[in-house]
Model the fold of this input.
Amino acid sequence: MNPALGLLRREIAIAWGRGGGLMVTGGFFAGATLLLPLASGPEPERLAQIAPGAAWTVLALSALLGLERLFERDYEDGALDLMAHASLPLEFTCALKCLGHWLATGAPLAVLAPLAAIALGASPALAPLLFACALAGGLAFAFTGGIGAALSLGARRGGLLTAVIVLPLFVPPVIFGGGALHALDSGLPWRAGFALLGAYAAAAVALGPLAMAAACRNALS
Amino acid sequence: MTLALSLGDLSLSRGGRRLFSGLHLRLEAGQACALTGPNGSGKTSLLRAVAGLCEVDSGQIEFGGTDPGTARASGLHLLGHLDGLKASRTAGEELDFWTRWQGGRPEAMEGAVLRLDLLRLLDLEVRRLSAGQRRRLALARLLSAPRPLWLLDEPLSPLDAHWRGQVLDIMAGHLAGGGLILAAVHDPLPVATVVLEIAP
Done:
């Protein structure tokens, strides 16, 4: 097993282990989605209308959970020191950490999102697009979120700071994905919105690690 | 890989305060240097600067003709008081991960486990280990992925008398095999051939 694969496995194991990971993120996602009918009234027509957008928004918020620990635990216990002087470039290491975070929490949430939307009354025909949006959007959330997590290294209450840094970066993917879902729901062309979401995710995957590695080096020095 | 280490006219500041300036050191294969100086004099910062983790104000850090990037990526070990071990993972998982990360071989890892008497501990979570056991686990990385230059920050502090002796033996063995050691210490280091006192 090469070092990169070892790191990916370790990241997933840490994200899943010990009370963090899927149970918490999935629980938060389910709980936040459940609040919606309680707040906006139980009329099925109205719920069905907002269901896809609501599941999509809650997904973006759930992606914030666990981000604060993404770099911080390695910073606190010295593992980041060892990762910063290694044969793998730190940029690649950061990308692997985000990928592991996405595999451990983002990808399972992508399965939950269509189920939640349907439970709220959305048309099942939306489920495939919502699943695809959640997969691509999850990547965008993980890789832009990693920038916020790396920038807030060493700050007190880093989790809150991460959320404040990251939420503006979450705006474009939320708009693109929400637009595609709304278009499909009203019988309009939806491909453009989805393509923009994919492009944003690709840009985040390509550029995010550069920013993360620079922020990590700055925090270590 | 064979390395040497030379520090030329090195100056370093942390948080706007000059820690030391004009520091010189030359270390050849088989030599160890004990860094001494009061708390806060910059011993840890110097080790981190050699590892490339923090910038120096001026001066050179050279690795005897080896490219600094290569030397730092695969020619040196940094063992600080933060050991990089995850509390929630087992000792065996962590040693296995770091061995692969640093390009070590499984046979070398088995040898390190025996040498540092870690076999009984491998199934335990790192959070269950005592400070001395954690330090032995961190030291096992140095043996399981052989690299010439060891940067050690207070390597003996949490160890008991028996293990202090054992680790000094391990360090002597590393030097005999052509390795180099730069260690920040408070107590005298018997294997050191050079002592460098850091003072402002």
About this structure: Chain B has six helices and eight strands. The CA atoms of residues 81 and 153 of chain B lie 6 Å apart. The first strand of chain B starts at residue 5 and ends at 14. The mean pLDDT of chain B is 92.
